[in-house]
User: Fold this.
Amino acid sequence: MIRALGVDTGDRRVGLAVSGPGGIVLGIPLLERRDWESDLAALAAVVEDKRAEVVVVGLPLNMDGSEGPRARLAREFGDALAARIGVPVEYWDERLSSVEAEERLKGVKLGKGAKKAHVNTVAAQVILESWLAGKRGHPGR
Assistant:
């Protein structure tokens, strides 16, 4: 099984998830955004630490499938990361991943602020799970 890192880029946080043995996807501590260079350096360190063989960046497409400003920013970030790490970066449709993440967190007892902070991590899990399903021939989206 390929070791993959899922990335959900938000305005304030970068949610992260990693694939483990048997295709299990685990959320890992998120990154608080600081600035472009610091964010890339921190993410490159995570890629190295987790020995990721591929990075899957969520691509926030519009509901009609077109790419808007947020998708272009995600691609810019992913391309800059790819140039830095020497590991392939793939993009995956993340439409509704945050909605699914919020649904998954509904039953979790956390304060509003803590729950909001976890949405990016769970969204990264959703993105990576969907990407892995697509690789196995069972597209989630």
